[in-house]
Amino acid sequence: DAGVTQSPTHLIKTRGQQVTLRCSPKSGHDTVSWYQQALGQGPQFIFQYYEEEERQRGNFPDRFSGHQFPNYSSELNVNALLLGDSALYLCASSPDPRVEKLFFGSGTQLSVL
Amino acid sequence: SQQGEEDPQALSIQEGENATMNCSYKTSINNLQWYRQNSGRGLVHLILIRSNEREKHSGRLRVTLDTSKKSSSLLITASRAADTASYFCATEEETSGSRLTFGEGTQLTVNP
Which of A36, A62, A108, B31 is the most exposed place for a label (fewest CB within 10 A)? Predict the structure, then answer.
């Protein structure tokens, strides 16, 4: 049973570019959440997707957008990249929108130069 | 924004010793969870304690919750070198739901 998978594992972009990160949830899970983790910090909630809709959103600008597909996989898009967007982006899945136990992927390390 | 503050930021102990980490938070919560992260990769759920519970055990882990002080502690007994990792508390706030707010973590090093 595959867990949460994320791709790519590492990514290097330059300021102003756009990036798409991908996530496949654990089998049987229909809810995907995205978190941003800056170096030395705890993860910060970006948004949650359930039934192909953004259900909740954290304090992130509109440059951060997402999508959930009918197979429950999800994408995180970031436009107009800033140096401060450099971070580990974590995808987490759960069997429903409650957050009583999240299963995390290994993350995508994004570096913006 | 970070909900919680964790204390200490770093902890170094010898194998076999107990490790205690503390977490404080600011708002009313539905539950508090502890996660472990190895080398900046994915987080692994360790234990959840609900707001109406005061103590919970799972293997070598013991979690306490004091809602009057808005604080929690995680005790790892008989630590092993493999316990070396970062430990984060995370809260599901009453008013927000469906999202976790993480603390800044405690880096635990267990020396063989």
Answer: A62
- Asked whether A91 and A9 are in contact (CB, 8 A), the reply is no
C-alpha distance from A18 to closest chain B C-alpha (Å): 23
With residue A18 as reference, give the H or E element that holds it: none
Rounded to the nearest integer, the mean pLDDT of chain B is 93
Cβ atoms B57, B5 nearer than 8 A: no
State the average pLDDT over residues A93-99: 90
Are B12 and B109 in contact by the 8 Å Cβ rule? The answer is yes
| B55 Cα to chain A: minimum distance (Å) | 17
Distance from CA of B77 to the nearest CA of A (A): 23
pLDDT of residue B5: 81
What are the tens digits of pLDDT across the range B29-71?
999 999 999 986 899 999 999 999 999 999 999 999 999 999 9
CA distance linking residue A111 with residue A89, whole number of Å: 11
Residues of B engaging A, defined by a Cβ cutoff of 8 Å: 1-2, 4, 31, 33, 35, 40-45, 48, 88, 90, 92, 96-105
